Amino acid sequence: MPLDHETILRHLFAARQRLSAAAWLIVRDAHAAEDIFQNVALKSVTREVSFEHEGALLSWATLTARREAIDWLRKRKSEALGLEQDVLDLLDCEWQSKSAVPEGPRMEALRDCLDSVPANSRRLLELRYFDGRSCQEVAENLGAGVEAIYQRLSRLHRQLKECVDQRVKQALLSAPSSNS
Amino acid sequence: MNDDLLLQRLLDGTLTPTEQIEINQRLGTDAALREHLREIAEQAVAMGDFARGADIPDPDHLQRANKSPRITHWLALAASIALLAASAWLWNSRRETPVVTLIDSSGSIAWSHGGDLRQSVADGDQLSAGTLETIGETATAQLAFADGTLITLSGESEFSFSEDGQKRLLLRKGTLSAQVKPQPKCRPMLVRTPSAEAEVLGTVFNLSARPEDTLLKVDEGLVKLRRLADGSSIEVPAKRSAVASLDSALKLDSATTPEPLTGWSFDFTSAMPPQDWRGNSDGTRMMASPYVASRKSSGAVLTHFGVSLRTAQLTPPLALIVTAQSVIHFRLRQNEGKPLQLMLLTSKTSGGYGGNFEKKIASDELRPDANGWCELAVPIRAFRPLSPRHESPVGKILTSVLLSSFQTDTKLAVTHFELKSAPQP
Question: What is the C-alpha separation between B378 and B329, in angstroms, rounded?
Fold first, then answer.
């Protein structure tokens, strides 16, 4: 029995972060990644496709998001993708293998962690990922050297990961006591 | 340069060609580095949402979100999708994308999808995701996916299929042989049976779903077989076979597939036949049982009474090869002197459907002894093909032998079967 449209959309929205992130790795533009996810969601209910189960839907959505991202890149930029096909396959594969784990709590933790980032660091992330500036442009904007920007970004990503892991762990530990 | 900086420069598009090769090689082998890259991508998307001030709806509560005062473009998207979905359903529900093409078939085949049931499908038909049944002992169906992967079903098989970037097959019962083109590494073809799941990247194999286990025979490449009873798995390479039982106390292991034989016999007086062979055994003989020989356009079925030896489903797997000198021998008895039909079902040595072949045996060809027992010997040249596409059984693998009476239950009983090689006269 094919999935109905409401179920399709629920599954897609549940995997939104992963699908958008997979597209972002190709286009490196948060707005474009968002548009690509929306296109995939629209196609899933308006194209001649049907899905027997969640796995089939997410496989199709991952492939479609990648195709859309590559098309977007071809239309707007001439630079090489940077990531080889085999690597993209592995990344998609690993993202799909995580599809059984709800991404909601992790994303909520990530938003909280971003909220707690100092203002100057948030400005750096915003310039890089929301405005889509290159590290050279970010460096010029902030009056720093490009190598320093690479290092700050690298450090920020690790700090955010640690923050998310810690919050998810705390949420898990506090779950039983909240029931008592 | 450390990995973090390499990743940042990769994302910035400022790596030299040599560095680009290096980072791709590292990413290909280092799972932790890939995890870090995925993390960066997820953080970048989250940062985009954060800066945009987006209110991402809880996927489980899309409808409830419509009542929230914080209307964002997400809600507009959800609303427009819901509208599109409702209108799209009208024209979309019956126009699913074809997944396979039926390229060769014989006997009765039924295809169903959702509530639709198409009794008759013809060679060349394109079928969307659904369930295909080969009805009756002699029915076969060969299906081709768009990438050239071939699946052949034979006997009484029930098989569901879908493909959305990954081929997912379900063999509820029966036998399939598959010639699988290379599949993407992270989206292998999956074939599930009631007792096992096979993961295939590109290979040639045979799979039989039997009542209590699954038999896998790999001809080329490698298949990963997982037993559903306990989740244990093994890799089965070419020329080896394995049985995944529902009984997890049995060891899951593979064994060398025996070389093809040109001679083989089965004595029903001293051995119990496998339970998935057609017929009823009392330990001394195999009595014919009814089966659907064909289905008329009205839906009515034509019943024959037969005894089959599904040699493709024996453990260890047996490959009987037909030669120009082959002779099929039966010791049989009937209560009435009626004509019989002897059918050979074959596959190609390279896998795939090899054709069905028939010999009609007139009642006067049967010469019973004083107790009614007949010795029947049919040389291979006496068989005629049921399809011009498969001219001769010679050189093919015998997957099943079926001896039947036409429509009438003549109490056909068989005590002995033999495939032997005899010099030509």
Answer: 6
- Residue A167 in contact with partner chain B when CB distance is under 8 A: no
CB contact under 8 A, A21 and B165: no
Answer whether A13 touches B (CB < 8 Å).
yes
If you measure CA to CA, which chain A residue comes closest to B11? A28
pLDDT for position B93: 34
CB atoms inside a 10 Å sphere around CB B226: 18
Q: Which of residues 44-103 of A touch B (CB under 8 A)?
A: 45-53, 55-57, 59-60, 62-63, 79-80, 82-84, 86-87, 89-96
pLDDT of residue B185: 75
The answer to which of B196-200, B274-278, B281-285, B401-405 has the lowest mean pLDDT is B274-278
CB B140, CB B105: distance < 8 Å: yes
* Reported pTM: 0.58
Angstrom distance (rounded) from CA B162 to CA B145: 10
φ, ψ at B157 (rounded to 5°): -120, 150
Nearest CA in chain A to B88: A46
Query: Which chain A residues touch B5 with a CB distance below 8 Å?
Result: 150-151, 154
Please check whether residue B98 is in contact with residue B128, taking contact to mean a CB–CB distance below 8 angstroms.
yes
Nearest residue on chain A to B10, alpha-carbon basis: A82
CA atoms within 13 A on the CB side of B216: 36
**pLDDT of A175 higher than 70:** no
- B8 pLDDT more than 80: yes
Residue type, B292: V
User: Would you state the structure tokens that stand for residue A62, as one six-digit string?
Assistant: 């991952």
What is the reported pLDDT for B97?
A: 73
